[in-house]
# Entry
Amino acid sequence: MKKPFFYIAFFFLLLSCFSLAIVSAEPTVNVVTIEDQVINPIIEEYIKHSIDMSYASGAACLVITLDTPGGLLTSTRTIVKHIMNAPLPVITYIAPSGSRAGSAGVFITLASHLSAMAPSTNIGAAHPINLDGGGGKNINDIAYELVRMIERKRTGNKEIPADEALPDERGSEPILSEKILNDTVAWVKAIAKERNKNIEWAEDAVRESISHTEKEALENNVIDCIAQDLDELLMKLNGRTVELNNGTINELDLTHARVTYIPLSTRQKILLAISHPNIAYILMMLGFYGLLFEITHPGIGFPGIAGAMCLIIAFFALSTLPINYAGLLLIILGIILFIAEVKVVSYGLLTLGGIVSMFLGSLMLIDSSYTLMRISLDVILPMVVATAGITIFLISVVLKAHSKRSIAGKEGLIGALGVADSDIDPLGTVVIHGEIWKADSEKTIRKGEQIRVVNVERLKLTVVKV
# Structure
């Protein structure tokens, strides 16, 4: 009776081992998703961790599903290094439809071993702007325009060609920008050459900020294929050969591949959330408010501790963004002006200066041409208005306090009404504010009659009959 049960158990054991062997034989494709995110140090850490984890788990390849407007050049350089030196094939897939690989996304796509795009996507516009995405004119640009305007006046409004530099007028900024541009062009050309991609297009994407649709990118040898979804991508890339940096050649076997998504860790999600410009700005302002309250109300308490924590977190978040320090200084100046208004009372002049300073500083704080990396006006205006409102409230309280007559000391007694506690002829006692005082009077005042204090000399009051 025991043998049939033994054979059945042995059969199921063999079947489970066979199933495990089949599962383990299936290739694994790991996928990371960068959706509408700016390339920053957190995304850099996310990609590096995903590459290391994919190699350690024996994955066939790592797919980066990309949708980004761009990001920090320093983080992009590090990501490109990780991808080009990755010990397994890395595939960049610009998806889903409607996505883009702008600026930093161009470098990441070109650096990948294989690349693809979904329908209705685009790639390009990789011109470097002030190192890490800043835009707008700086002080040297403005000075340059002024010098040119003066020179045109001197020469009778004769227009001077833009490429003719006046002696010592342009400063170092245009030279620095040109160096950055040339360095970025050389870098992208080296990447494109290494991956056998269109070198001329890569250079034009940086110099001229050109952008291509998925069909144009495929025709110009910028990507390897167009795929509707991830399944079609794996099917089209199955059997492709990839040469890794160490010289080994891998033939992608993606038949019946199991797809595993690598999510952001909880820590990375939190850091990514606080790295949003609006969140960083709100934390910074809350930190200033907390410290301001602690300074105006002495004693180490919750506002000071919370304010310091908010400021530390805000400064970490701002370190991942292209900060304009002139904007930061203007915000600090605005806070100082608000504090000075409470202490000095300039009847609104310092408050007006603080509002203007804080508003302009908030607009200038993030030096970037990307909408995702700028602080929203919907956040700036409430913060400035709230700060101004708090300051105006404090000013009104101070003004009311100054306008009130003191009820203590000599000033508080003169003019006060009371009652004679005894006959005053010329000396006696009176009751003022529930207290008994010695008093004198030029005229006789009877007990119980109402009196008013007209003078205070030490501990004796001079009163008159009401």
Confidence is low (pLDDT under 50) at residues 17-24, 130-147, 158-173. The longest helix spans residues 377-403. The radius of gyration is 37 Å.
